[in-house]
Amino acid sequence: MTSAVLSVPAADPAVAAAHFLSRLTFEADVSDVRADLLAGVPGLVVVDSRSEVAWSQGRIPGALHLPTARIPELAPQLVDRGATVVTYCWGPGCNGATRAALAFARLGYRVKEMLGGFEYWAREGFAYDTDHGTEQRPIDDLTAPRSGISCAC
């Protein structure tokens, strides 16, 4: 029997461990970012790299609005060099957060990209700010448990 999954063998466990550890040094998920924001973890700066129109439509509470094109110009004035920056954009179909993370890395910042972006923040039922106040959508049970309790993964 032919296997689509096993047609390319899985990596050696040590190589796999290094790969997955590497991914975690570059990425954070929305639940972990939210938990750190709620806990007030010092030295964490969440950056929304989208346009002014997108920012107005909705943003993570406490995030700094810094469109990608302006990062080289404004980051040194707005973001402490000792901070760890977490970038986000619209969602998984957009690589804006990746471009923003690259811009911060090129300036010498420690940086991670938030997987799922603003889309998954809202889909997991987390409150977000708009120009008209705070909003919150129902939990999408394809992204998080309906109970609102963390999946604890």
Q: What's a concise summary of this model?
A:
This protein is of the alpha/beta class and 153 residues long. It has helices at 13-26, 30-39, 52-57, 71-78, 96-106, 117-123, and strands spanning 27-29, 44-48, 64-65, 84-88, 110-115, 128-130, 133-135. It is globular.
Features:
153 residues; two-stranded antiparallel sheet; alpha/beta; globular; 5-stranded parallel β-sheet; 7 strands
Which percent range fits the helix content? 25-40%
The pLDDT mean sits at 94
By secondary-structure content and strand pairing, the structural class works out as: alpha/beta
How are the strands ordered across the major sheet? Answer: 1-5-4-2-3
Computed over alpha carbons, the radius of gyration is 17 Å
Q: Sum up the overall morphology in one term.
A: globular
Oligomer: single chain
Give the low-pLDDT segments.
none
Element pattern in H and E: HEHEHEHEHEHEE
First and last CA, distance: 33 Å
Q: How many alpha or pi helices?
A: 6
- Total beta-strand segments: 7
Largest sheet report: 5 strands, parallel
Name the beta content range: 15-25%
Can you describe what's shown?
The chain is of the alpha/beta class and 153 residues long. Helices cover 37% and strands 18% of the residues. The chain has 6 helices and 7 strands, in the order H-E-H-E-H-E-H-E-H-E-H-E-E. It has helices at residues 13-26, 30-39, 52-57, 71-78, 96-106, 117-123, and strands at 27-29, 44-48, 64-65, 84-88, 110-115, 128-130, 133-135. The strands form 2 sheets. A 5-stranded parallel sheet has the order 1-5-4-2-3. The two termini are 33 Å apart. The mean pLDDT is 94.
